[in-house]
C-alpha cells in the first residue's frame, strides 16, 4: 500500500470513528422527559389565552409561557399620568409561602408612562419536575400512549396554588397604592418523553425539561468515549 492510500485509509477511519461517537452523543444525551403544565385562574382569558384583569385605569395580563415556572405581567396604564409599581409591596405567594423579592432584578421597570404599557418578568419559582401527587387523592390521572400521563387538578387539590399581589400607585412617593390580588393554580400536568415545545407555546402553559437517569449516564459515558476516541485519532496521526 503506497503512502497516499495509507493516508486515505487512516482519514476514512478517523472520520468513521468521529461520526460514530458524535451519533452516540446526540442519541443518548437526547433522553429527556418533559412536563407541560397548564395554569388556571378565576381571571378571564383573552383570545391569546392570556389571563386578564381590567379596570377603568389599568389592564393587567399574565403570561406563563416558556421554560420553568415564572411569569410575565403586562401592565397597561390607561391614565394621563404615570403609574408607579411598588415592588416592596408586590409579592408572590406559592403554596402559602411568601416569596419576597419575586420581581427584583437590575433592569426591572418601576414606572409606567401615561397611556402606555410595560412587561415585567418574575424570578423563577420552580425549575424541577413538579411532584404530580395532589394534596389529596381526588386528582384524576389519564394514561395516554407512549407511557405519557395527564394529571388533572382543581384549585383545592392542585400541587401548586399561588397568588400574585401587585401594588400600583399614581403617587411618586408610592403612597396610597391600589392592590391587585390574583390567584392561580396548576390545573393539568402532561408528562411525556415527547418534545412538544414548539406546538405548545401559549400563555397559560409552561414546561419543565429534565434528562432521564439513563440519559445522564449515557451522556457521561458518551463524553468519556469521545475523549478516548480523540486520543485514538491523535495516536493514528502520529
Explain what you see.
This protein has helices at 3-28, 213-237; strands spanning 32-41, 44-45, 51-54, 58-63, 72-77, 83-85, 91-94, 97-99, 111-112, 116-121, 140-143, 149-152, 161-169, 178-192, 205-211. The chain starts with a helix and ends with a helix. The chain has one domain. Strand 11 (140-143) and strand 12 (149-152) form a beta hairpin. It has 238 residues and is an alpha+beta fold. Helix 1 runs antiparallel to helix 2. It contains 2 helices and 15 strands. The protein is globular, with a radius of gyration of 25 Å. Strands 1, 6, 7, 8, 9, 11, 12, 13, 14 and 15 form a 10-stranded antiparallel sheet that branches.
Brief characterization of the structure:
With 238 residues, the protein is α+β, with helices and mostly antiparallel strands.
Structural class category? alpha+beta
- Beta-strand share of residues: 35-45%
Total DSSP helices: 2
Sum up the overall morphology in one term: globular
N to C succession of SSEs: HEEEEEEEEEEEEEEEH
What is the alpha-carbon Rg in Å? 25 Å
Number of strands: 15
**End-to-end distance:** 18 Å
Q: Uncertain regions: pLDDT < 50 for 5+ in a row?
A: 25-29, 214-230
Mean pLDDT rating: 82
Q: How many domains is the backbone divided into?
A: 1
Helical content (DSSP H or I, runs of 4+): 10-25%
Protein name: Lipoprotein
Amino acid at each position: 500500500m503506497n503512502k497516499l492510500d495509507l493516508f486515505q485509509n487512516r482519514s476514512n477511519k478517523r472520520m468513521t470513528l468521529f461520526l460514530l461517537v458524535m451519533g452516540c452523543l446526540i442519541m443518548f444525551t437526547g433522553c429527556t422527559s418533559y412536563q407541560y403544565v397548564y395554569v388556571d385562574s378565576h381571571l378571564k382569558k383573552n383570545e391569546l389565552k392570556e389571563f386578564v384583569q381590567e379596570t377603568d385605569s389599568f389592564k393587567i395580563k399574565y403570561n406563563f409561557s416558556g421554560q420553568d415556572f415564572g411569569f410575565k405581567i403586562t401592565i397597561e396604564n390607561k391614565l394621563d399620568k404615570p403609574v408607579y409599581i411598588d415592588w416592596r409591596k408586590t409579592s408572590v405567594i406559592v403554596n402559602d409561602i411568601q416569596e419576597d423579592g419575586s420581581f427584583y432584578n437590575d433592569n426591572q421597570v418601576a414606572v409606567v408612562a401615561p397611556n402606555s404599557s410595560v412587561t415585567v418578568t418574575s424570578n423563577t419559582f420552580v425549575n424541577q419536575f413538579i411532584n404530580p401527587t395532589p394534596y389529596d387523592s381526588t386528582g384524576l390521572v389519564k394514561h395516554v400512549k407512549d407511557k405519557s400521563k395527564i394529571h388533572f387538578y382543581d384549585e383545592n387539590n392542585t400541587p401548586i396554588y399561588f397568588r400574585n399581589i401587585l401594588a400600583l400607585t399614581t403617587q411618586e412617593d408610592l403612597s396610597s397604592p391600589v392592590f391587585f390580588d390574583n390567584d392561580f393554580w396548576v390545573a393539568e400536568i402532561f408528562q411525556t418523553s415527547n418534545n412538544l415545545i414548539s406546538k405548545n407555546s401559549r400563555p397559560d402553559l409552561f414546561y419543565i425539561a429534565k434528562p432521564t437517569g439513563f440519559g445522564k449516564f449515557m451522556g457521561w459515558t458518551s463524553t468519556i468515549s469521545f475523549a478516548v476516541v480523540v486520543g485514538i485519532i491523535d495516536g493514528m496521526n502520529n
